[in-house]
UniProtKB/TrEMBL annotation:
It comes from the Bacteria. This is Transmembrane efflux protein. It comes from Herbaspirillum seropedicae (strain SmR1). The chain crosses the membrane at residues 90-116, 167-196, 223-248, 260-281, 288-308, 314-333, 345-364, 376-394. GO terms for cellular component: plasma membrane. InterPro entries: MFS (IPR011701), MFS_dom (IPR020846), MFS_trans_sf (IPR036259).
Length: 411
């Protein structure tokens, strides 16, 4: 009886049950939604801070860059620290720090306090992407649904980007920016408490300590090819978003039409992350990337030449392809990461993609100054084609890893 009981418990100890998987996914999705919302509320607050503190545009750019720059630069450090202190402690602490940073910003009397608060906020936000995504990958590894779970996780981030800044914008109609910023900070602290209750203890160490079965050796070349694909994809996405308002303006769009156009693009993008994650699980990473990147490049070229009405109808499809690729790329990270080193692999990937997204508007903006908006967009579309051979290299690395583990060809 004892032997039967022990044998029956062994799979449960090694494989998270369905309820535990869903709990981990809900925790990761909550973290992603809140953190992405906290990151993007800065766009709502920047005009108010500029008016309040008489800031130059250079200082406005520095405030925005301080948050995103620290967030991108500290993700590798977050991955390393998670191995020492535990994923749960670091993710909960980072979320609490991001919330506390907004509470500090609500008390700011001069721009120096704002800058300090945003640096602390970026430091706290740096824990979310590598640790929450690796939590999802680890929880769903044995279920064969890692890509689908990661697509849900990415979709949650877009929900947070839409809801939290929008709600803050409505609140600021009737309240001061100090009150609104303080409430954003309290939301961050509440999210930290929720994560503390939801995230299982020591998940990272448990995964690293598994010894049974063949161990994934990882693929350094595959990860670099994946990072190159993600970096180009992110740079083109942020470069296009920089140029789109000016392209619309050149076609006669006013402020209201530009707002509608961006909404159409973002709605398509949110569903693209969800849909392409499932598509990648069905037809494979490489085929999905080729479809989405080729569609994006074609739509960018069409956007240059189509009249405004036709362009508006094209934007949901463009958003779906433009944002959808990222879900497939995130899903490939666990298949290429060495056993026990997912946190570091995700941290490296997010550092490259977020860093590229931060630099792209500057570089392509300069390109637009030297040439023209249509010429810069055509170069962006051509740059996307570099992802096709890179994604082929990624697929080959996935297949080699799958063969080494005794499975079939990777998807």
């Amino acid at each position: 009886m004892t032997l039967q009981t022990t044998a029956a418990r062994t799979p449960t100890a090694e494989t998270p049950p369905a309820a535990a998987r869903k709990r981990s996914l809900f925790a990761a999705c909550s973290a992603h939604a809140v953190h992405d919302g906290l990151t993007d509320v800065v766009y709502v607050l920047l005009p108010l801070w500029q008016s309040q503190f008489a800031l130059s545009y250079a200082m406005v750019g520095m405030l925005r860059g301080s948050y995103s720059g620290v967030m991108a630069g500290c993700q590798l450090l977050a991955g390393r620290l998670a191995r020492r202190w535990g994923r749960k402690a670091l993710l909960v602490g980072g979320t609490a720090l991001a919330g506390s940073a907004y509470l500090l910003a609500s008390l700011a009397g001069h721009v120096g306090w704002l800058l300090l608060a945003l640096v602390l906020g970026g430091l706290g936000a740096s824990t979310q992407h590598p640790l929450a995504s690796s939590l999802v990958a680890e929880s769903y590894e044995d279920s064969g649904k890692v890509k689908q779970a990661l697509s849900n996780y990415n979709f949650a981030g877009d929900i947070g980007k839409t809801l939290i800044p929008g709600l803050l914008g409505l609140l600021l109609v009737v309240a001061s920016w100090e009150v609104g910023t303080a409430l954003v900070g309290l939301l961050g602290l509440a999210a930290a408490l929720l994560l503390w209750r939801l995230i299982p203890a020591d998940t990272g160490q448990a995964a690293a300590g598994k010894k049974s079965g063949p161990q994934r050796s990882g693929s350094g070349k595959g990860l670099w090819a994946l990072l190159g694909t993600g970096t180009i994809d992110s740079a083109v996405r942020m470069g296009f978003l920089t140029f789109l308002p000016f392209l619309l303006q050149g076609k006669g769009a006013g402020t209201a039409a530009t707002g509608v156009a961006l909404s159409l693009l973002f709605v398509g993008g949110a569903f693209g992350k969800l849909l392409c994650g499932y598509l990648g699980a069905r037809i494979g990473m490489m085929k999905t990337v080729w479809v989405t990147e080729a569609t994006t490049a074609l739509c960018i070229v069409l956007a240059i030449w189509l009249p405004l009405t036709w362009l508006m109808s094209l934007l949901p499809l463009l958003g779906l392809a433009l944002n959808g690729t990222s879900s497939v790329l995130y899903g490939a990270v666990p298949e290429l990461a060495e056993a026990g080193k997912r946190d570091q692999a995700f941290a490296r990937f997010y550092t490259g993609t977020i860093g590229a997204g931060a630099l792209a508007p500057i570089l392509f903006g300069r390109l637009g100054d030297l040439t023209s908006i249509p010429s810069a967009l055509q170069i962006l579309a051509g740059l996307l084609l570099l992802t096709l051979p890179l994604s082929w290299c990624v697929q080959r690395a996935i297949e080699r890893n799958a063969a080494a583990l005794g499975g079939g060809p990777g998807q």
